[in-house]
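ugh ok fine here u go
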Amino acid sequence: MIAYPEAQAINGHTYQLVSIFCRHSDPWPPDLQHGYLENKFVTIEKTLDKRDSLNIFLSADDAKFYKLSPTRIDSLRNLRFTSLQTKLGQYNDVYIIEDEDWMGNFTTRSDYITRVYWSKSKGLVCYDKKDNVYWELAAILQPVTR
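structure:
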């Protein structure tokens, strides 16, 4: 996670950004030195003019979320929570965030994610791909102490 609240000290606090990055394995390109990729996973932007937004940049093994514009936080406040049962448990604070494919360029791809299920308290808990394929959170990893 990375944040830069002090970066605006010159002009005053007008904008804050928090980003969460992920590291995952990827077989392509085969000459990748480290054997993994690092990607931005989620950003949350907060502005003084209340144009707060959530951006999900989900990219996993054969799965990509094509949401081209940010999700406005105030639009989430207008949605009702959905309940979702997964193998890990029950979530009663879930937003369903739909894909965006205005031109129809992405829906034919095999990695196309149609919707993301985002728990307000837990984050990403599930996503649907086309053709009834889905992923859901099945375990929460705990830190190992040595």
